[in-house]
Amino acid sequence: MRLLIAGGAGFIGSAFVRFALRRWPECEVIVLDKLTYAGNPRNLDSVEGERRFHFVQGDIADDAQARSAMSGCSHVVNFAAETHVDRSILHPEVVVRTNVEGARVLLHAAVDLDVERYLQVSTDEVYGPIDAPRRAREEDALRPRSPYAASKAAADLMVGAYHATYGLPALITRGANTYGPFQYPEKMIPLFVTNALDGLPLPVYTDGLQVRDWLAVDDHCSGIAAILEHGTPGEIYNVEAGNERANMDVVEAIVELAGCDRGLVRHVPDRPGHDRRYALNTEKLRALGWRPRVPFDTGLRDTVEWYREHRAWWEPIKSGSFRDYYRHQYEQRLAESVP
Ligand code: NAD
Ligand code: TYD
Fold it and tell me: Which residues fall within 8 angstroms of residue 4, CB to CB, at 6 or more apart?
């Protein structure tokens, strides 16, 4: 197997690089990554020097760069994306270029280069909010509500079109909210953990009763691998571990694990279009034999410990251009916050 991992310098992509090199001893891995603010070569430090690993800096939306990196590859997994809902509200144009046009460029290159399997990494957010106790199934209608979710839904439809029209053996995975080491500290868990460790406020959007189903990054990787190996081309697979939690429950657990002052928790004005609940039915993936391994309590505890021990990874991020984003996103909200 010669595997192109697009977006392999990001959070889940870099975990999948480590996972793939372990799981498939004959596999050669090529990472294509633009190294945006979210891409970090340090995420790949542990595989640097491995002879089966190659890194190419490039843009998935650039046809020549995408083809050159994909040349000779039997398999492609596309993680590359603009992934943060709040930023997608500020800059939808960047999101569409990478998440939609970038995916189309990769798909077309995969057809022309006769790739054996193309896997698009998508998200539960394409279904939009799901009322309890229902869980979204793969055949459900797409009702995305943020620019991020809409761009991922558009890419999913394009994958379906490339399968139907050009016969590309393509699959889609729709994963739940993922957490673990090396996650850029803009998403809720790493932002709140690093803020808690620094004694900074934890800005909870409104009542914090929104529900997400938390998936450990290693479980997300093993799900994607199972689908790459055993999934049926043309099919879509939900990936989720059954760890439904209200945000406030996660926040209370972080306060406890980080040992910070409970007074740091602040309720701030909401994100526009904030989806109340995501939940997935995973019967289809479980029929392939996949099971999650990481209980949420253990996974969250280990994640907090990882951030406690890896300040050298996240402090430079939080003191760089992230500061401008943070100020823009939270300064006014925190001024209006309540305990
Ligand atoms: P991330 O933001 O940590 O990493 C994204 C990576 O893509 C970065 O390395 C970035 O440099 C790269 N990238 C961005 N634009 C690019 C471009 N034009 N060309 C090449 N590389 C580019 O993201 P993540 O959280 O690891 O998410 C990976 C994938 O998983 C995304 O497709 C996302 O939609 C999906 N997903 C994420 C979650 C989650 O909770 N994080 C859940 C479900 C699905
Ligand atoms: P996030 O990690 O951004 O993932 P997503 O929006 O893709 O689900 O957010 C997870 C939940 O946490 C979501 O309900 C929004 C909420 N949230 C906050 O309350 N405050 C924050 O500062 C952030 C970033 C998220």
Answer: 30, 31, 32, 69, 70, 73, 75, 76, 77
User: pLDDT value at position 304?
Assistant: 98
pLDDT of residue 91: 97
In the predicted structure, residue 320 carries a pLDDT above the cut 90? no
State pLDDT tens for residues 141-161: 999 999 999 999 999 999 999
The yes or no reply on domain 2-178+216-239 and CATH 3.40.720.10 is no
Q: Rounded to the nearest whole angstrom, what is the distance from the C-alpha of residue 169 to the centroid of ligand 1?
A: 22
What global pTM score does this model have? 0.99
Sign of the alpha-carbon torsion through 22, 26, 27, 28: positive
In the numeric block, which tokens belong to residue 260?
Answer: 């910070």
Q: How far is the CA of 207 from the centre of ligand 1 (A)?
A: 28
* CATH superfamily placement of domain 182-212+243-273+294-335: UDP-galactose 4-epimerase, domain 1 (3.90.25.10)
Domain ranges of the chain: 2-178+216-239, 182-212+243-273+294-335
Q: Work out which ligand 1 atom sits closest to the CA atom of 12.
A: 26
- Once rounded to an integer, what is the mean pLDDT over residues 231-249? 98
